[in-house]
């Protein structure tokens, strides 16, 4: 297979060629193929595939071990290629068509294409804000000054990698936070355009 | 409140009144100025004067005993804090100080200083809270996430908001160095947002602001 798909590969790797030949010869059981796709996703996410799971698929497929390993290599290369397509260049229809060209069925091609949006890589990142609760309080008096009458905001952040975190935001800092978030949003909108 | 405060001040007053009345005006003015300046500072320390300063003051004021110096300094600080607590006018403060037994000169010195520095002292003391995890400063930045070891080319713009927090507990690491009452572990909470998440966060902040507007 010399002609290469546009989005997936500049040059089609040999394992993918082998996979395509097997798919087009209708030798590969759909269930076995789906299992190999699932294994590839788990491998991409960094999960371990235990030996017993691999033994089961070898038994179910009735393929020789070497052939199954080649098929898995092809599926792995393909899945990685789909997931690596830049967001701006990703076109579900084009990817789907290319997968069908390689020998996948429509359902399988759609499933693989949807992986791009549903699977998130386990890459390092800062904490994400999952949700927030807030309360406005007014300090009437403290041990230092008998009449304060200053509002402040108590916020409870639900964070992705930690438990809830409660912070006290004085009014001046709250205004600073609003200004900075608005400023960031303006810049992000300009970047998107 | 004033009566009970006067009563509590009177317990320590007799010794300190005599000593303070005998202090040179220029020295007294400088001591009071240092007290109000240290009270106006955002970074608080447990004691206004450190040991070296107290030794120098002991010599300057010709005070023989440490306890007498402590009483004098704590009385002067207490007068200023009392004035700040009640948000006293300078004229009322001068009258109050004279009623306690201080010379008129001492009263006028304190009230003149209070007239100049009252606002800064009261504003700083108002900001002191006993809250845990108080936001001291907020910073933000915009980043472009280009690539990762698994995700390939992504090109996602991200915003980072950093909350510099003053809160937590003093650890063994900080125990060895001089620390202030508010110098509990400073931490930074960094949150990452994409465009949609930041929009949602901003809408929440706007909701809070609308409630604040109704309040004010």
UniProtKB/TrEMBL annotation, chain A:
InterPro entries: COMM, COMMD5. GO terms for cellular component: nucleus. Pfam families: COMM_domain. Coiled coil: none annotated. Residues 128-192 form the COMM domain. Belongs to the COMM domain-containing protein 5 family. This is COMM domain-containing protein 5.
TrEMBL record, chain B:
It comes from the Eukaryota. InterPro entries: COMM, COMMD10. Residues 108-216 form the COMM domain. Coiled coil: none annotated. PROSITE patterns: COMM (PS51269). PANTHER family: COMM DOMAIN CONTAINING PROTEIN 10, COMM DOMAIN-CONTAINING PROTEIN 10. This is COMM domain-containing protein. It comes from Daphnia sinensis. The lineage of its organism: Eukaryota, Metazoa, Ecdysozoa, Arthropoda, Crustacea.
């Amino acid at each position: 297979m010399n002609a290469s798909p546009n989005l997936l590969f500049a040059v089609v790797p040999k394992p993918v060629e082998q996979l395509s030949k097997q798919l087009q010869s209708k030798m590969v059981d759909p269930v076995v193929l789906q299992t190999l796709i699932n294994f590839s996703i788990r491998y991409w996410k960094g999960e371990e595939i235990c030996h017993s799971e691999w033994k089961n698929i070898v038994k179910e497929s009735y393929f020789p071990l070497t052939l199954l390993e080649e098929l898995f290599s092809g599926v792995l290369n393909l899945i990685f290629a789909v997931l690596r397509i830049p967001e701006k260049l990703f076109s579900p229809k084009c990817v789907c068509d290319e997968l069908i060209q390689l020998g996948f069925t429509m359902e399988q091609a759609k499933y693989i294409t949807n992986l791009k949006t549903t699977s998130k890589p386990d890459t390092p990142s800062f904490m994400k804000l999952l949700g927030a609760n807030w309360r406005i309080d007014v300090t009437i008096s403290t041990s230092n000054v008998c009449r304060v009458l200053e509002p402040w905001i108590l916020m409870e952040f639900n964070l992705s990698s930690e438990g809830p975190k409660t912070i006290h935001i004085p009014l001046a800092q709250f205004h600073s936070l609003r200004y900075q978030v608005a400023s960031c949003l303006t810049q992000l909108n300009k970047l998107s355009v | 409140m004033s009566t009970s405060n006067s009563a509590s001040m009177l317990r320590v007053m007799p010794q300190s009144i005599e000593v303070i009345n005998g202090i040179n005006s220029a020295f007294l003015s400088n001591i009071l100025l240092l007290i109000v300046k240290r009270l106006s500072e955002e970074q608080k320390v447990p004691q206004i004067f450190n040991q070296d300063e107290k030794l120098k003051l002991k010599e300057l004021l010709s005070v023989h005993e440490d306890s007498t110096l402590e009483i004098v300094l704590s009385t002067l600080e207490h007068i200023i804090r009392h004035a700040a607590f009640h948000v006293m006018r300078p004229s009322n403060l001068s009258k109050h100080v004279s009623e306690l037994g201080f010379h008129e000169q001492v009263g006028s010195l304190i009230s003149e200083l209070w007239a100049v520095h009252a606002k800064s002292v009261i504003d700083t003391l108002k900001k002191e809270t006993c809250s845990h995890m108080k936001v001291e400063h907020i910073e933000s930045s915009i980043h472009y996430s280009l690539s990762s070891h698994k995700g390939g080319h992504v090109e996602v713009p991200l915003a980072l908001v950093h909350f510099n927090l003053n809160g937590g507990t003093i650890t063994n690491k900080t125990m060895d160095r001089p620390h202030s009452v508010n110098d509990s572990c400073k931490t930074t909470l960094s949150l990452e947002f994409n465009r949609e998440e930041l929009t949602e966060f901003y809408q929440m902040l706007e909701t809070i602001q609308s409630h604040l507007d109704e309040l004010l």
